[in-house]
Specification:
By secondary structure, the protein is mainly α. 63% of the residues lie in helices and 0% in strands. The mean pLDDT is 82. It is found in: Mitochondrion matrix, Mitochondrion nucleoid.
């Protein structure tokens, strides 16, 4: 029975799209990672809680098939902001969110990040430069 559960999850992972614009935050990539962790031994994995596993699969399958989108259709495809789906995708992309975070930083924080050494070797070199300066 575990083999059939494993195959169902694999099929769901194959069908689930991966959004490349959401690096590190994509549900499809996270789903693949979790399935790999849960079924480490592949079809030979013993499922401790089969009911919970089946319930999880059914929930994910409903999300993937847009069950609730079809069950509760929206009268219009707009939101309170009036932005389109494509505009939301652009705004929620990882690159855009990183740009927003950079814009929100104050001048002091930007300078601090720019001049603070990143690696331990860089820190050691910076301290060596400071300590080797002649005393006034």
């Amino acid at each position: 029975m575990a083999a059939s559960r494993y195959r169902r999850f694999l099929k769901l992972c194959e069908e689930w799209p991966v959004d490349e614009t959401k690096r590190g935050r994509d549900l499809g990539a996270y789903l693949r990672q979790r399935v790999a962790q849960a079924f480490r031994e592949g079809e030979n994995t013993q499922v401790a809680e089969p009911e919970a596993c089946d319930q999880m699969y059914e929930s994910l399958a409903r999300l993937h098939s847009n069950y609730y989108k079809h069950k509760y259709p929206r009268p219009r495809d707009t939101s309170f902001s009036g932005l389109s789906l494509e505009e939301y995708k652009l705004i929620l992309s990882t690159d855009t969110l990183e740009e927003f975070q950079d814009m929100n930083k104050g001048l002091w924080k930007k300078l601090q990040e720019r001049f603070t050494p990143k690696s331990p070797e860089e820190k050691q070199k910076a301290w060596a430069r400071v300590l080797s300066r002649p005393q006034a």
